Amino acid sequence: MNISEIIKLESERKSADTYGRIHFIKEGNFYRAHDWSAWLATRFPLTDAWNGITIIAKKLKEGYIDAWVGFPVRSLEKFVPNDGSITFIPVTDTMIDVVIELTDDILATDPDEMRKTVDEWKESLPQTESKSQKRENREMAGVYPRVTRISDIISHIIAFPIESKSPMEAYDFLRQLRKDVAAIF
User: What was the pLDDT predicted at 143?
Assistant: First the structure.
């Protein structure tokens, strides 16, 4: 499922019966919840594993902010219990829905107001740059940022949200760390 299809799916919430539905979409080795689904997953955590999960927000070319959270496919039971406490619906091979119970005040809210709440949440998130944006910014600056202290490297390691990254993104991060360490010594 591409981002246009995800945006369409998330924007089709027109009534209270769709407010509490979290769409988890399989993307590689991860399940990700975007937009409204991400807001639900972070506002109404399904298990303790959601505490402290990293939320990624990127502004797309069209000005749309894509906010998402994710977890490894192999950790599904850790993040989404299938013990009968919530409604767990396999939709396709690449998507599962989880239906959570919301409070009456949320269910009584107008769809436009709910959309506004989700959009305000997304706008409040710190946004990360896409790889192409980073490259453009570096080219415009004419220099690449250089790490000069071990403490900078440690800060990068601590801040890196490995749980929400693909194996390739983790590999790229490790490769960059090796370059940074080699540049110091």
Answer: 44
Please state, in angstroms and rounded to a whole number, the distance separating the CA atoms of residues 176 and 107: 46
Please choose, from the candidates 20, 35, 28, 22, the residue with its C-alpha nearest in 3D space to the C-alpha of residue 1.
Answer: 28
- CB of 164 closer than 8 Å to CB of 70: yes
What does the block give as tokens for 147?
Answer: 């790490």
CA distance 46 to 30: 17
Q: Which H/E stretch holds residue 25?
A: strand 21-27
Strands (E), 54-174: 56-59, 65-72, 87-92, 95-99
Strand 30-34 with 65-72, pairing:
antiparallel
Structure tokens at 39: 């807001």
The dihedral through the CA atoms of 112, 117, 118, 122 has a sign that is: positive
Answer yes or no: are the C-beta atoms of 86 and 44 closer than 8 Å: no
What is the model's pTM?
Answer: 0.66
Q: Are 96 and 80 in contact (CB under 8 A)?
A: yes
142 — alpha (psi -120 to 50), left (phi > 0) or beta?
Answer: left
Sign of CA dihedral 169, 173, 175, 179: positive
* Cα gap 54→177, rounded to integer Å: 20
- Condensed to tens digits (0 to 9), the pLDDT of residues 67-112 reads 999 999 998 888 888 777 788 888 999 999 988 888 888 888 888 8
